[in-house]
Amino acid sequence: MKPIHTYWVDQEGSPVSCVEKLRVLRENEDEIRQVLQDAFEDGVLMGVTPEGMRRSFEAMLNDLKDPTHKG
Predict the structure, then answer these.
(1) CB-based contacts of 15: which residues, under 8 Å, 6+ apart?
(2) Which domain of life is it from (predicted)?
(3) Is there a domain that residue 51 lies in?
(4) How many structural domains is the chain composed of?
(5) Which of 12, 15, 32, 60 is exposed most, by the fewest CB atoms within 10 A?
């Protein structure tokens, strides 16, 4: 099953329509989904609870830095 892609919007809330930007965003999304799925499966197979893996991923997302924000 092919994953459903995110509906991307810009800073003003308008849909991103540039074909090249959408291609890169979708490729990144596909890669991230696969890496997350692989890491999730590894963790669960090594005995970590699914909830624990999800909490770990959420913590990583919360630590992401906005490259446009200085400070």
Answers:
(1) 7, 8, 9
(2) Bacteria
(3) yes
(4) 1
(5) 12
Q: Report which of residues 5 and 48 the model is more confident about.
A: 48
Is 33 a domain residue? yes
Helices (H) and strands (E) in the chain, counts: 2, 0
* Residue 15 three-state SS: strand
Range of the domain at 48: 19-63
Secondary structure (3-state) at 16? coil
* Closest alpha carbon to 3 in 50, 25, 54: 25
Give the pLDDT confidence of 7-66 residue by residue, as tens digits: 899 999 999 999 999 999 999 999 999 999 999 999 999 999 999 999 999 999 999 999
Residue 36 lies in a domain: yes
